Structure formats: C-alpha cells, structure tokens
Amino acid sequence: MSESEKNLLVENQKLKQKIADLNKQIDGYRRMEVELSTEINLLREGIIH
Description:
This protein has one helix spanning 3-44. The chain is mainly alpha-helical. It is rod-shaped.
C-alpha cells in the first residue's frame, strides 16, 4: 500500500468519525426540538404557565 493510500485511509477514518459526531449532534438538536415543541404546545393550551 502506498503512502498516499495510507493517508487517504487515515483521512477517511477521520471523516467517518466527524460524520458520526455530527449525527450525534443532530440527534441532540432533534430531541431539543421535540421538547421545545411540546412545551410550546402546552403553553399555548394554557396547561402550563
């Protein structure tokens, strides 16, 4: 395996890890969106103040 191929494999692994980290971040934002949406609906309906 050439040096450039090794470098590409390392870069590929780094990018895969970055994608995994971003997916975790996106999941967290989606959860926050659901929580906030629920809270807004409860506020609109006057269930919570």
